[in-house]
Design a protein that fits this description.
The chain is α+β, with helices and mostly antiparallel strands. The strands form four sheets. It has a four-stranded antiparallel sheet. A two-stranded parallel sheet has the order 1-2. Strands 3-4 form a two-stranded antiparallel ribbon. Helix 3 runs antiparallel to helix 4.
């Protein structure tokens, strides 16, 4: 293991990539005599950046490379989304890791097991992405308990309208990003658990930059039609322990029959 998480994650069969490989082999009906797994990770852990989903998708992609060597058919993108989402319990990050770019995902609760699906959407070329990654960590499980079991019809209606508007903003109208990233259902509720991230988010928005918590946080991501963030936003981020830089839009998962996978 090298890169993010090196020296902190287990190096045995409990490693998430290895667990995904073993699960993928089991569901494919393929056995291998043994594996030496080398992981190079660029995604910080426990920041709301989807590192666990990327690890799972990477492991399943390795299985695709393995099964082609014995003449078996590799998993389709739809099958990878389903298997990876079963690990995660939802398709949000898993589908993005499989398809790359921007995606819309959903869950259907029919039958014994949920069915997870996703479709890609074309991100407008003028949108620039700036993650602000803090040193602090948090777990999705810990921050999820901060959310209420029930929400008002007014709040639900507000976020539904913003979710629809976000698709328009991401694909056609970047000038609508500020309005489209308004939220009343999870960011205010999580603010007390990550005060620095909450304040940075609000500072970015006061500077006219659309910003949201990345996943459950504490990372913050800014979306802007401008190629650079305002100086005040960069200075605040640096002063408060955030690593801020522009991030390219990721491609979908790739694998080869030589058992190399990239997610």
């Amino acid at each position: 293991m090298e890169g993010e998480g090196a020296g902190q994650v287990p190096l045995d069969s409990t490693h998430l990539v290895v667990r995904a490989i073993e699960h993928g082999l089991l569901t494919a009906g393929v056995q291998v005599p043994g594996l030496k797994v080398h992981c190079c990770n660029d995604i910080p852990h426990s920041r709301g950046l989807g590192s666990s989903a990327a690890a799972v998708v990477g492991g399943l992609a390795i299985v695709n490379g393995l099964v082609t060597q014995v003449g078996s058919k590799p998993r389709t993108d739809a099958e990878l989304i389903q298997l990876a989402s079963e690990f995660e319990g939802h398709p949000d990050n898993a589908s993005a890791a499989v398809l790359g770019g921007a995606v819309v995902s959903w869950t259907e609760h029919e039958g014994v097991l949920p069915r997870y699906s996703a479709v890609p959407i074309r991100l407008h070329p003028d949108i620039h992405l700036f993650p602000g990654i803090p040193q602090e960590r948090s777990s999705t499980a810990e921050t999820r308990v901060l959310l209420p079991e029930e929400v008002s019809h007014t709040d639900a209606r507000f976020n539904l309208s913003r979710a629809a508007l976000l698709v328009v903003a991401l694909t056609q109208r970047p000038d609508l990003l500020m309005e489209a990233t308004e939220d009343v259902l999870h960011q205010p509720q999580r603010a007390a658990a990550m005060p620095r991230s909450a304040e940075y988010l609000q500072l970015l928005r006061r500077c006219g930059v659309a910003a949201v918590l990345s996943g459950a946080g504490p990372a913050v991501i800014a979306l802007s039609p401008q190629a650079e963030l305002p100086a005040a936003a960069l200075e605040y981020g640096t002063a408060h322990g955030f690593t801020v830089s522009e991030m390219a839009v990721g491609e979908g998962v790739r694998w080869t029959s030589g058992v190399t996978a990239r997610s």
